[in-house]
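Let's do one together. I've listed all components of the complex below, 532 residues spread over two lines.
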Amino acid sequence: MAYIDIRGLSIRFPIYGSDHQSLKRHISRSVGGVLGRAGAASPPMVTALNNVSLRLDPGDRLGLVGHNGAGKTTLLRTIAGAYAPDAGIVDVEGKVATLLDLMTGMDPFATGLANIRLRGLVLGMSSKEIKARTEEIAEFTELGPFLGMPVKTYSAGMVARLAFGITTAIDADILLMDEWLGVGDAAFRQKAQERLLRVVENANIFILASHDFGMLRQMCNKFMGLSGGRNTGFMTLDELDDYIASAAA
Amino acid sequence: MTRPPKPTRPTRHYAAARGSYGRELSAAYHDFAESFRRTRLWSALAVNDIAGRYRGSVLGPFWITITTAAFVIGIGIVYAELMNVPPQKYVPWMATGIVMWNVVVQMVTDGSTAYLDGAPIIQQTSIPLPVFNWRVVLRALLNFAHQLPVILGVAVYFGYVFTINLPMALFGFVLMVINLSWMGIAAAIVSARFRDMQQVIATVLQLVFFLSPVIWIPSEMSNTTELLKINPVYHMLDVTRSPLMGLPTSADSIVYLLIMAAVGWIFTFALFASVRRRIVHYL
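Okay, and this is what the predicted structure of the assembly comes out as:
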């Protein structure tokens, strides 16, 4: 059974800025002796997530809300397995599919079809699965002959169709999405939403980080606020309205 | 007394490092093991890299063959004269040297950008880091495969093709690649952390090119030959070039490379284990 269980998760980003990434600084620091090293040797830290706990089970469709920089994307990337926790534990059971960035695993110079294979492999599909699903993905994207053209010739909406089509073709137990439906025409949005609902209905876990409250309302049944990397609490649909009102005020 | 049921481990369990290096070592081992289950992924990335570079060109990756051949012919004509060595001795030496040197450069210099190039994927997925190193290794091997006709062509032209010791050449090549692999991984790690390293590595390699007998033949009388043997590339060239030219490989070179492979891999693995969590933050 799929689940996500996060306990006391903290993620800190060391900032290897322009003055920390250069070797010269590093060397000159290390020859500075004990005095200068203690504090100066470690890069400045940004706490992106601070003691976040979260449990999701099949059927949970979580909407993540919070300002820019609140930690939504970091949380999604951590669940996807990109960041290792600095504190706490993250347990993820089940196959994860992500749509965090439209171009991940895609080569703009390769054709749409080649990119279905590339992105499919990056997202963990097997060659067999990709072959079996390619036609279905092609059909969903409605890109037709454009699939034989390089992706760099696509409009943003066309890229979105392709990326979305590939991610939702994965037999995943957990689906993670970061603000994405800003592009694409009305017909595609409608179609995408229907497809997403179908995928989510299979007793899966779904997490969507978005600023689009209308979208969140339609897609999710649970909400969580993030602010400054902290979990500001879980909300029901009604409580979300209060949250929106307070955020607007 | 009944034992409580063993809790089942989730498919993926990420925990904070609690200062236990042993756990990081086992996680690093897991990264490498997992990377071999993603063979399809790194093969696809490597093939796409090569295809992408020559996309739209008529001859495609065979340009690799042509540029190498042009280089060999050009240097062959000029240098055989300059160094006063008969072409049938000089050209095979230089041609195999150049092709092997290209493998060195591609695995180490290209290796240094392995993680930087993979950044968008590394930052969003749980794909283990060695996948991006194997991508570079395979890319270099594919490049090498396109240069083989040059070695073969030279061997046929100068008529020593039947003296090639193929098993020995293969053994030497594998030994070289095993060594270059750890160098590439180490280069990828330090270049992700320190952006100057990419340039440092390229510069050092440029220097090593001139210090290695790639396009020149070391004189047997000179006592600098002993000094040359500190250079790992000298031995890499020896174990690959000698059998390809039908000459005996020195046991010293094999021993040197075996020891360097063991020491280098232990060092690189230890380095990888100690920074594997932070690499994503370097990018």
